[in-house]
Specification:
single chain; Dex49a from penicillium minioluteum complex, domain 1; 2 domains
């Protein structure tokens, strides 16, 4: 049951005896429904179902199987991932949420795409403007905003920025030097591009975004040199970093402060990391960062980029190659259901220079520091030897005050798990409890 390329859907979804449209993109099928009370759900697969998993597992959704049909009851709005016969190539994603936020009928500066297919190209939104992607809209285009204020992007329609190849694909949403932006509801897909780029921005909220993308570099949400960013209730399935905080050369040293990701569901594919700070951290500081109440469904093995890249990949990571002070970071109440990447946790400071300047310039080598990072109530499930890695390379003492509190592997505290490997080098004050 391989649907890794865009083809006609292979699933049939029935909700309360009514067929629901199922859409196919690379690597997944998905359906959106408006949740207005308890729902009876039947999924018909293209083959006999031998086994099935409904994720996130924390939802504890009981199900029954009969031939090619899976049956369960949905009792609350949820972003669900349904997998059959241990096949991860083509899950069915069900986005069940309450009615999406819609603008007022008499709203000024309103751009609307109604149900149906649209070729929009680059979409511009004026200051104080609203873009509304109605339910059932499939818009081929991308949003690229610079220096705008008081922007809203609303609705549960699809913004498809996928071209025939990487050169003809775009990032669905880029906001640069913008302030007071709300993104609420859209479904985004692209190929080998970051999906939501928040660069040099202030006061940004992202809610109920659903990202289903493929290819290396298909990051989910990148907060790049921005402050006061709040992301919640989002679903991200991509083949690179799902959620990431950084400050690239393009951010021109802009500070990163007061960033929160919470109540999200994530799936990391072959590249990148699950939840990441780094690699590019070329700014004065990155502080007051919080990741909370997150379900990481899969963190799969890393692509073959060489031993260094492969071995650093993980579920929860800070890869510091810049000169920033990274401090006051909290990972809390995170459930990681399946890890085949090399590391569960990887926190590193080191020199990584490339001539193109994307990473550490020569005048900023080995200046970065990490301190006061807490990982609390983190549950991992893995069949690999669990590895936790904290290392200050080149210059010892660049990492301090790291606390692991109630971290478990397959239900066993790491303090009691004889197979857990905790690697540390050049680190001050690593506490495990």
């Amino acid at each position: 049951m391989d649907c890794s390329t865009q083809t006609q859907t292979t699933y049939r979804l029935v909700i309360d005896d009514h067929d629901v449209p199922v859409h196919q993109v690379a690597g997944a099928a998905f359906a959106t429904i408006t949740f207005d009370g308890e729902m009876d759900v039947v999924v018909h697969a293209p083959c006999r179902i031998e086994s099935a998993v409904v994720r996130p597992l924390a939802r504890d959704i009981a199900h029954t199987i009969a031939g090619d049909a899976l049956h369960f009851t949905m009792k609350e709005p949820s972003y669900l991932c349904v997998e059959f016969n241990d096949d991860l190539t083509c899950p069915l994603l069900i986005f069940a949420e309450r009615e999406a936020v819609a603008p007022f009928d008499n709203e000024k500066k309103l751009i609307t795409f109604g149900p149906g297919e649209h070729d929009a190209g680059q979409i511009d939104i004026p200051d104080g403007g609203t873009l509304y992607l109605a339910e059932g809209a499939w818009v081929h285009g991308h949003i690229d905003l610079h220096g705008k204020r008081d922007i809203r992007i609303l609705g549960s329609g699809v913004l498809d920025s996928t071209g025939e190849d990487q050169a003809s694909s775009f990032s669905p949403i880029t906001i640069d030097q913008c302030a007071n932006v709300l993104i609420d509801g859209p479904i985004l897909t692209t190929y080998r591009r970051w999906n939501i780029i928040i660069r040099r921005c202030e006061n940004v909220q992202v809610r109920h975004a659903k990202i289903v993308s493929s290819g290396l570099n298909s990051d989910g949400i990148d907060v790049d040199g921005s402050t006061r960013v709040h992301v919640e209730h989002c679903f991200i399935k991509c083949n690179d970093d799902c959620i990431v905080i950084k400050s690239t050369p393009l951010a021109e040293g802009a500070r990163v402060e007061a960033v929160t990701f919470q109540r999200c569901v994530l799936w990391k594919g072959d590249g990148g990391n699950g939840i990441e700070i780094g690699y590019e951290l070329q700014t004065d500081f990155v502080r007051r960062v919080r990741f909370a109440d997150i379900d990481l469904l899969h963190v799969v093995k890393h692509l073959s980029f060489g031993a260094g890249w492969n071995d650093r990949a993980g579920a929860l990571t800070i890869h510091h190659t810049g000169d920033a002070l990274v401090e006051d970071v909290l990972f809390e109440n995170i459930r990681v259901e399946h890890v085949t990447a090399p590391k569960l946790i990887c926190i590193m400071v080191w020199h990584y220079h490339k001539s193109h300047g994307w990473f550490s310039p020569e005048d900023r080598l080995m200046q970065g520091r990490i301190r006061n990072v807490t990982l609390r109530n983190i549950a991992f499930a893995t069949q690999r030897v669990p590895r936790i890695h904290v290392e200050s390379m080149c210059v010892p003492g660049r990492i301090s005050q790291i606390s692991l509190e109630n971290v478990t592997v397959n239900g066993v505290p790491i303090t009691s798990c004889p197979h857990t490997i905790i690697e540390q080098d050049g680190v001050e004050d690593l506490a495990v409890s």
